[in-house]
Amino acid sequence: MTDSAASFSKLSKLEKIDFIASSFFKEPTLAKNVLQKYWNADEKLQQLHDDFIENTISNFYLPLGVAPHFSINGNEYFVPMVIEESSVVAAAAKAAKFWKTRGGFSTRIIGQEKIGQVHFAYNGASNELHDWFANCQSLFREETAFITKNMKKRGGGILAIELRNATDKLPNYYQLHATFDTKDSMGANFINSCLEQFAAVMRREADKLNGQLDVIMSILSNYVTNCVVEAKVSCSIADLKDKGIDDPELFAKRFKMAVDIARAEPYRAVTHNKGIMNGIDAVVLATGNDFRAIEAAAHAYASRDGQYRSLSFCELTDTRFTFGLQMPLALGTVGGLTSLHPLVKFSLELLKNPSAAQLMEIVAATGLAQNFAALRSLTTTGIQAGHMKMHLNNILNQLEANSEERKAVQAEFNGKAVSHAGVHEFIDKLRQS
Ligand code: MEV
């Protein structure tokens, strides 16, 4: 075991599977069968997935669902969502349908700027560093020209390159802080390549300084404070009337209080934002974007004034209800997985092949829809009522219930709280009788 473990990455896919199955499973054949069941019969497609990461042994499926009814800036969308949690797609669709007849979602891009930093130590006089940096400016641009050429043709490139004195944070700590326009790509490779080239220039030119300069690292920042989108819905308070919203004025006030609680109280804000991310991550995944980057940025942004708060806001006037969301979303619609993964290509085509800005708008609207649906349920019926149907279905699937058993269980648990143990017991009794 130790030999194979040490050289695991060198083994072939089948050898890896043999090793894993025989080392960690009571029934190796069963373990191998599970992995193989999830392979794609189309060998080329399987190879494509094998090559996305390292040491691939199988595929891990997540459902791809579609939330219809989204009207965003007057355009209709069927939004693809990849998520394992039941009720999320239904909730998005329900909220989208509600808002479709009340003006739909309106969105605006606040910025699309990306950020990268070269972090370095310097122990000399900062005014001298300042002058040296000014002299390097043209070199930074000239020596990255081979990287920026194509991006420039697409209208993007390096925006600004600044020296930042960060010695108030850490002794001798300075940054080259650069901003970029990466057009429709997320731009991680582009930014990191530029930064490493800046760093190479800095290292080479460092002998012109009296102090010592040591480049520690060069990397993009996922905290994209100027790559921000806003999505909003708004209608007259009277128009909020709907099934389960008999008193729209009261609903609007309680809804606003729920949002305000999430602005004031971090314990609630985290769950509130988690609900927003249910929608955001699902579209981000479906469109082949990096959901870890999106998550990291969203939560840092939610804490930007020093306290973790809701990403959404609610405003009421005497007659009008407005609900909105503002958050950073560094997304791409070209590069990365977008042209490689067939389902990502499918999702983007379903969304009418959006630009990165349009995708930011669609994703933000989905997050807002999700948040609206959650708060509507929470402040009216409670969240469990909607979840119970799906929950019951999942339990019935697990227990491999046949159609008669399903009918009997549904009749028994109609309007009642559903628990796994309760359904199990009921089905056991049915099966015994
Ligand atoms: C569950 O995935 C998400 C909610 O908890 C969000 C919320 O509480 O606002 C329902």
TrEMBL record:
It comes from the Bacteria. It catalyses: (R)-mevalonate + 2 NAD(+) + CoA = (3S)-3-hydroxy-3-methylglutaryl-CoA + 2 NADH + 2 H(+). This is 3-hydroxy-3-methylglutaryl coenzyme A reductase. Gene3D superfamilies: 1.10.8.660, 3-hydroxy-3-methylglutaryl-coenzyme A Reductase, Chain A, domain 2. Belongs to the HMG-CoA reductase family. Its EC number is 1.1.1.88. One of its GO terms (molecular function) is hydroxymethylglutaryl-CoA reductase (NADPH) activity. Keywords: NAD, Oxidoreductase. GO terms for biological process: coenzyme A metabolic process. InterPro entries: HMG_CoA_Rdtase, HMG_CoA_Rdtase_bac-typ, HMG_CoA_Rdtase_cat_sf, HMG_CoA_Rdtase_CS, HMG_CoA_Rdtase_NAD(P)-bd_sf, HMG_CoA_Rdtase_sub-bd_dom_sf. Pathway: Metabolic intermediate metabolism; (R)-mevalonate degradation; (S)-3-hydroxy-3-methylglutaryl-CoA from (R)-mevalonate: step 1/1. SUPFAM superfamilies: NAD-binding domain of HMG-CoA reductase, Substrate-binding domain of HMG-CoA reductase. The keyword Ion transport does not apply.
